[in-house]
Write a structure and sequence with these properties.
This protein is α/β, with parallel strands linked by helices. Helices cover 42% and strands 17% of the residues. A hairpin with a 3-residue loop joins strand 4 and strand 5 (147-154).
Amino acid sequence: MNRLGAEWPFEKPTVIYASDLLRAVQSATILQTAFHIPLQKRECLREWTANPADLPQEAYMGLERRAWHDLQWTPPSGESLAMAGDRITRCLEGIEVHHHRETVAVVGHGTLLSQFTARLLGAVPSEAYKNSIPTAGFAVVTHGDRWRLVSDFRALD
């Protein structure tokens, strides 16, 4: 994230939105410091989870695999991956309404954001696509009359 802040290849954002979970806030704070702009935390940007309980890794991964196999399946968390896709879309649309024609940075989590970008690609969200997102990867989207993916997730070269 330090490198992304230093080598930001776009117009400087006017604000940063981030999930209210610690790891996203920590990443967003790096960009906030680089750009000297406000940071707003949003619960709607929180990562999707199959189960908020502290399960053994193997048990949790079984739930997550089932959720990826059937995007409509509702795991113990109460939110299917399809529902998470709807949540991130509503969240980003809410941000867009307040920042029309502005550059805004959004810092979140791969599973949730992959739901949104996969839809923009005209693809069904998948675990393989989510797993292809690099750590500290970024995607670029724009909104005019509709959302458009300008650049899919990548890391700085």
